[in-house]
Amino acid sequence: MGNGCVISQAAASMLCQQVDGMSLEKARLLAPKDMLDLLGCPISPLRQQCALLGLEALRALLRQESD
User: Fold this and answer.
1) pLDDT by residue (tens digit) across 24-41?
2) What are the residue boundaries of the structural domains of the chain, listed by start?
3) What are the BP-aspect GO terms (predicted)?
4) How much is the pTM?
5) Alpha-carbon gap, residue 66 to 9, rounded angstroms
6) Does the pLDDT at position 1 exceed 60?
7) CA distance 6 to 65
C-alpha cells in the first residue's frame, strides 16, 4: 500500500477501477467534479485536494503519454 491519507488512497483506488479499460481520450476528459462524484460522499473543501491527488497524477501521466 502506498503513502497518503485514507481519502487520497481510497480516491486513487476508486479512480483506478473507474479508468480500467477506459480509452485514453475518455480518461483525459475526467474532471475534478467527476472524481468528487465518484466518491459518492461529501468531501470538505480542505480535503478535496486529497481526493483529487490521484486524478492529478493520472492527468500528469496522460500528458506525458501525449508528448
Assistant:
1) 999 999 999 999 999 999
2) 6-66
3) iron-sulfur cluster assembly
4) 0.88
5) 26
6) no
7) 28
